[in-house]
Amino acid sequence: MLVDHEMTGISDDQLREMAQHRGLRLVKSRRRKPGTGDFGKYGLTDMGGEALLGIGADGLTASADDIQDYLRSSEQNTWKQSADTTPDRPARKETPRPPEPEKEDEPIRRRAKRISPDRPARREQEESAPARPKTPSKAKPRTSLRLVPKAAPEPESEPEPGPAPQPVLRVRAATTEDADALAALLSQLGGFSLESADVAANLTSARKAKAGMVLADLGEIVGCCGWAVVATVHRGAVGRLTALVVDKAHRRRGVGTAMLEAAETALTKAGCRQIEVMSDITTNNSHNFFRSLKFEQASYRFVRTISEQASGERVRGGED
């Protein structure tokens, strides 16, 4: 069975991206077996390969939290150092202006009026002369003002669209309307090929048997997790995971863990005190995933098809 495998906490890709932003390189242990050597450990070097953190003589020693704390503290120190080393802008000095020379008070001279000696004679002539008729002044034609239409304002350029927001993972119950998406998802399990009608019928039967299934929805169905309550005499009600599948393009992102938490909550409400899972013996990724979530291998699983057994008994009965 194919499952999602992820670390608890921050992922390897996030740690590697944080290190690259700081101009560093993340080193991860190549051990694949838990409990051996520096399995699950990390280290940091600069781009020249010089060790900075978590690299010792016996291998890698730093955890994911150690790497994350180092990178964040390094970022804060860089900002503080930049602020401390930036000189303050000097205040602008004003150049004093030279004092203006004082002006001595000058006496105010009044201009004497000049009186023409023939002014009384002019007034007498004007009074004795006949009044001239006033000629009407020709009105100047008004020039029409031509209204110039205002140019239309240029449309403002639209801002370039930013990156599309990432969809939020939503874990919800499966319905028969999800049969098409579930059939495509379950086809990633080796040896299974179901039609949409078969998936819808199996969902209805599981619901009647008080079993359940949740889906991981990211705008599209990217995972499913099914479970059932098994009534036993010696262990009471046992919760059993019957299917856990995450689409290949969305693995190692926490999808499987989110669905498993929803299934465990539902089984706890149903009165189960234990949860067990059946995994294909050839699927190593699923084994590592369950071990990372504190599952222990407690038994073997033996399978035989009922139809083959029944047909064999009919053949032997006919020979007798």
Automatic annotation (TrEMBL):
Residues 21-45, 73-167 are annotated as: Disordered. The keyword Oxidoreductase does not apply. It comes from Sphingopyxis fribergensis. This is N-acetyltransferase domain-containing protein. CDD domains: NAT_SF. SUPFAM superfamilies: Acyl-CoA N-acyltransferases (Nat). Keywords: Acyltransferase, Transferase. GO terms for molecular function: acyltransferase activity, transferring groups other than amino-acyl groups. Residues 22-34 have a biased composition (Basic residues).
